[in-house]
Amino acid sequence: MPCGVAPRFLILYGSQRGQAQSIAEEISEQATEHGFLAKISCLSKGDKYNLDREHGPVVFVVSTTGDGEPPDTALKFVKKIKNKSLPGDHYSHLHYALLGLGDTNYANFCNCGKTIDKRLQELGAKHFYATGHADDGTGLEVVVDPWIEGLWEALKKAFSRMSDSNQEGTAQGEATEKSTQQGAEIQEKLDSSAVSLHLLKLGDVETQKEKAETSASESETTEPSGAPLEPALIRSVPPLSQSALNVPALPPAYLEVRLEDVPVEEVGCSVHVLKEDFREVPVSRALHLTRDDAVKSAILVELDIADQDMPYQPGDAFDVLCPNRASEVEELLSRLGVEDQRNRCVYLQLRKDTKKKGAQVPSYIPQKCTLQYLLTWCLEIRSVPKKAFVRALVEWTQDSREKRRLQELCSREGSADYNKFVRDTNVCLLDLLQTFSSCSPPLSLLIEHLPKLQPRAYSAASSSLCHPGKVHFVFSVVEFPACAEHPERTGLCTGWLVHHVSPILQPCGTITAAKKTADSGHTFPSRISNTFHLPSDPSVPVVMVGPGTGVAPFIGFLQQREKEREERQNGPFGETWLFFGCRHKDRDFIFREELERFVENETLSHLKVCFSRDEQDGNDPEPKPRYVQHQLLLHAKNIVHILLKENGYLYVCGDAKNMAKDVNDTLIEMLGNELQLDKLESMKMVAKLREEKRYLQDIWS
């Protein structure tokens, strides 16, 4: 590459679980190919950058977490720019682009990105490129890939404009323009040559023999019966199978892995190494809440925390750290050809020749851990491989047809196939390795691309006032039916939980607690995170919406309120409404007896239930509501009065994909009908409730 001063820009990311960071790093890695120099930093590291003096372009990549909140790494930055004392021209010198990450299955889509974007505009900053909002509900890459592709031209134009207008930096401007022109000339030469960095044709990467094999495979478009072939994970059909492909650049390798024998006493393998704030908590009880013929089983687990310093409030979430499935770890060890090295210690270090900027050895992998431990407790081996990982696997695949198919799946042209056969079907690395048998990646590639094994959060379904020294939570076993891409399996954590408690699991209807004490084998690595609480003022009315296992935190709320009422019999307590729904009244109406007791002793003012699969009584003049949102509409006047006239709180817990969306839409409809508002005004009122933290969600997808 010709010498020159490469134009420099800054990349800032705010990430909760690594998505935004990964995308920011991808932008940084691609920058060099396009003739730029990128400096990258986390928003939390304020000592690494200074936007008050930043005159080059800035690219923000930020995710959203929780109920539309900024990720932990962006909290300080958001608070800083929200300072009302900042003048309106504080960032008038700043030119930026922003890529927000979110999930439309949740309310407040891309809220952190939108918040930063809006505030920067208010402080005088200017866009040099259109803001992107990527949706994890449909696939981040649908927006991320074209957004990054268009970024480079936008940066060239931004540098050109800044060069023309910056009188004080003429010399630097000339160097920048020259470098940009040189970069463009290089790219032009590459585009005109037989080999392109991004447009890979079969003839560019295969031998003549492989060409012939691929050509033969492309002609095989019908089954032996004469029926046309259908696309699948392992194969494509025209036009994709005959298309030239825009394949992303190969992610740079950055880790070296050594496996060495170490004396047993020196092996540092403990769950506590991973998370010092996790505790091994014994299980004292497990109970089926649903009948055997329920469509989904719900299980209550009681943890004994009497000997732990783990105070909690109703609505808190308990993070449970579960291991990867032993059988899957075993299969992966075998597939990688390292099953005989499972007890050797893993040593990681950065490659000296790596081109990855800011490369670091993963901090979540403890020193002197065994290979078995690493695959069991450190890496999310069930995660859906991202396109960058699929791209890296191409280099370790021998069969030309398999290599071509992996190229298709990570290409722009193959996005629909990637979504259909990888993302939407929850394909994991093992599924890919079973399908693409000639792919043999090294261990280092897995560590570079598999994310950290994350804990799973479960809401407390109890109050410590009612159950001192205990905490309850409820879960349903997640099931993934067998399909062409993978065998039948259960959710990683819920499958592990049900297996874990099976020796002490009691049938539905059991009243007394089990007499047996769970031994040391029945423990969970757990910790508490604060999220979802009752108002501090008990006189404030609350409305709770929790179908299915979404009712769990509200059981804790009502247990707490029941004890508070016993302690302060003459105290003021606000109304409590609970909207609950399930499929069948007799099969899966969980906590029925307890809820009816709450109604009887007036802890719960109103219990509204609905059963979506029970047959309707033909003699009823009006059909009964099937879902919680229908019940809400029937009581719209009361709910709107509570929220707007009594400053009440609305809590929603459960499924994000359907229920939470439907409840949100119903709330907008209720406000519009009761107050005679148009939809936009109703949406603004809902947004205001969220801002005031009086409309709270604890939802999952």
Query: What is the radius of gyration computed over CA atoms, rounded to a whole number of angstroms?
Result: 28 Å
- The counted number of beta strands is 24
Kindly report the oligomeric state of this protein. single chain
Number of helices: 23
> What is the global morphology?
globular
Q: How much of the sequence is in beta strands? A: 15-25%
N- and C-termini, Cα separation: 47 Å
Helix percent band: 25-40%
Biased composition (Low complexity): 214-223
Pfam family, one: NAD_binding_1
Domain Flavodoxin-like: 9-152
GO cellular component, one term: cytosol
What would the keywords be for this entry?
six-stranded parallel sheet; alpha/beta; single chain; 701 residues; seven-stranded mixed sheet; 24 strands
Summarize the structure in words.
With 701 residues, the chain is α/β, with parallel strands linked by helices. It contains 23 helices and 24 strands. Strands 10, 11, 12, 14, 15, 18 and 19 form a seven-stranded mixed beta sheet that branches. Strands 1, 2, 3, 4, 5 and 6 form a six-stranded parallel beta sheet that branches. It has a five-stranded parallel beta sheet with strand order 22-21-20-23-24, with helices on both faces. Helix 3 links the parallel strand 4 and strand 5. Helix 11 packs antiparallel against helix 12 (400-410) and helix 20 runs parallel beside helix 22. The radius of gyration is 28 Å and the shape is globular. The two termini are 47 Å apart. Mean pLDDT is 86; it is low at 167-219 and 513-521.
